[in-house]
Amino acid sequence: MKRFVVFPLFVAVLACPGEKKVSADTIPLDTMPADLSGVQPDIPAAAPDTFTPRQIPRATQGSGPSVPAAPPALQAAVEREQAFSRFCYQEFGQKADPTLRGGVAMVVTVSGSGIADARVANDNWSSRAAGTAVNRCLNEKAKLAWKLSPGEVKAGKYVVQLRFTSSG
Q1: What is the pLDDT of residues 98-109, one digit of tens each?
Q2: Is the pTM of this model over 0.70?
Q3: In degrees rounded to 5, what are phi and psi of residue 75?
Q4: Rounded to whole angstroms, how far apart are CA atoms 58 and 67?
Q5: In whole angstroms, what is the distance from residue 150 CA to residue 73 CA?
Q6: Which residues are 118's β-sheet partners?
Q7: Is there a contact between 106 and 162 (Cβ–Cβ < 8 Å)?
Q8: Alpha-carbon distance values, 66 to 44, 58, 60, 70, 143 (Å)
Q9: 3-state SS string over the chain?
Q10: Could you tell me the CA-to-CA distances from 5 to 2, 9, 14, 103 in Å, in that order?
Q11: From CA 82, how far away is CA 138, in angstroms rounded?
Q12: Handedness of CA 112, 115, 117, 120 (dihedral sign)
């Protein structure tokens, strides 16, 4: 019985070739010069340029209607809730870049019932990626964090300047 098991195994070992050793001397080298000037490359055409210039809102451009600075009542509301803007700076900016510094100019739209909208119109960050994260946070939360009593500030658009530096 053992013969029937050992014999096929023996045949299989003999039938399998071993590794062939190839030396560098047996590989032919093509050392003939060739003219490649007639070879046509098969490279796809370049993709169109997808860059679009950043559109700066009219509030921060030198031409066009200017947006006035925030009146004292609006500035006081912003200062009352400075913990919110500090949160955006620390959690979204400094965690990505501990040396982040800079500032933003926000355009705040005031309606008869309070703050209707607040958006970053211009920024000046030491790190583009970390600053963009701070801007996103400010855009999402500013109009909810800053509170005005109805009629406290005349309806319109105003610029609020915020500056951020690391405190350590």
Answers
A1: 999 999 999 999
A2: no
A3: -65, -40
A4: 8
A5: 12
A6: 108
A7: yes
A8: 48, 7, 7, 12, 21
A9: CHHHHHHHHHHHHHHCCCCCCCCHHHCCCCCCCCCCCCCCCCCCCCCCCCCCCCCCCHHHCCCCCCCCECCHHHHHHHHHCHHHHHHHHHHHHHCCCCCCCEEEEEEEEEECCEEEEEEEEEEEECCHHHHHHHHHHHHHHHHHHCCCCCCCCCCEEEEEEEEECCCC
A10: 5, 7, 15, 82
A11: 11
A12: positive
Bridge partners (DSSP) listed for residue 122: 105
Confidence of residue 60 (pLDDT cuts 50, 70, 90): very low
Token pair of 102, please?
């800079």
The residues facing 134 across adjacent strands are none
Q: Token digits for 10? A: 């023996």
